[in-house]
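Exercise 7. Given the encoded structure of a 328-residue chain, write a plausible sequence.
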């Protein structure tokens, strides 16, 4: 199988927003190459005592996205055949728009070819069962040990949608959901991905979950993970669309009907999302946000306050922040 590799040269502070932006147009599974030093947690996952010193961080990052090439030379993009030039144009348009409000460095795009790589499944060798406090998270290709069978267990396979629970932002959201969920909770998950947050809310007693996402890949991922965890299909409703700008999605989600809204998204998205999503919250409803890098904390807190919400707490893990607020 052949693949076209689209590589964006950028700077490390722009990695997350570029990945998120290009993911929204259909480019998935980003490979990141940079010289940012490993965190303590990442070093622990290497299972070695001493790591060699790496090169000095120069702030440059290369983000590679892989698109399948058909036998006739066209590319499979968003489930349809597309020309290389069409994809390049879309990528360059998105990068140009990002330049209007942030520094993305060089922002050049190069194309190369690779083959015989199973990009969809190779990552599985790096994803193993782990704990988030008292919760065991385990993929389908591993077995639950006898000693763990009496514990709360989440079976999760992200597939082509984001969300395994390993990232600090997801763990911050999980802890807040556990804290505020009740048997009467109706929860809206904006940016559902694999469905991990909604499924966990149901596992911890929520009555119903509604999820929204921009990526159609989230639908089968959520369905598979719902089945794997024995969640009732009717308790989790999925819809595709942009709740920030699409009135139809806002109407379908409903107004003033959610006890909790959770959004594990980048700060740049949380700012325009917050004044919209307050309309979905009940009075006294809880708004849980994450995906906030530490230097964006003030930006999100101010946006939450400006939308008329009361800040309840700000929690931290690593360099990431979660802001929890209440609708007045």
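Solution.
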């Amino acid at each position: 199988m052949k693949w076209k590799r689209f590589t964006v040269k950028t700077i490390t502070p722009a990695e997350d927003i570029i990945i998120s932006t290009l993911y929204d147009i259909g480019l998935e599974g980003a490979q990141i190459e940079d010289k940012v030093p490993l965190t303590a947690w990442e070093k622990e996952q290497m299972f070695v005592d001493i790591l060699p010193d790496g090169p000095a961080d120069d702030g440059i990052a290369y983000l590679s996205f892989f698109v399948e090439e058909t036998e006739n030379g066209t590319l499979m993009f968003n489930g349809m055949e597309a020309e290389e030039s069409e994809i390049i144009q879309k990528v360059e348009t998105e990068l140009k728009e990002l330049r209007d409000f942030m520094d993305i460095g060089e922002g050049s795009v190069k194309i190369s070819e690779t083959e015989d790589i199973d990009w969809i499944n190779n990552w599985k060798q790096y994803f193993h069962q782990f704990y988030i406090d008292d919760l065991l998270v385990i993929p389908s290709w591993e077995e639950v040990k006898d000693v763990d069978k009496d514990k709360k267990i989440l079976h999760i396979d992200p597939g082509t949608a984001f969300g395994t629970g390993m990232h600090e932002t997801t763990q911050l959201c999980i802890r807040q959901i556990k804290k505020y969920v009740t048997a009467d909770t109706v929860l809206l998950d904006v940016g559902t991905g694999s469905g991990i947050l909604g499924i966990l809310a149901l596992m911890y007693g929520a009555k119903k979950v509604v999820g929204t996402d921009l990526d159609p890949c989230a639908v089968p991922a959520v369905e598979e993970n719902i089945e794997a965890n024995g969640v009732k299909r009717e308790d989790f409703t999925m819809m595709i669309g942009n709740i920030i700008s699409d009135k139809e999605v806002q109407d379908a989600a409903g107004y003033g009907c959610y006890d909790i809204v959770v959004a594990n998204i980048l700060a740049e998205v949380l700012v325009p999302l917050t004044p919209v999503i307050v309309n979905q919250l009940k009075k006294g409803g809880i708004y849980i946000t994450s995906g906030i890098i530490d230097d964006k904390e003030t930006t999100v807190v101010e946006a939450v306050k400006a939308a008329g919400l009361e800040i309840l707490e700000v929690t931290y893990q690593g360099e990431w922040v979660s802001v929890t607020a209440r609708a007045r």
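Remark. Residues 43-52 have pLDDT under 50 and may be disordered. Students should compare their own answers with the one above.
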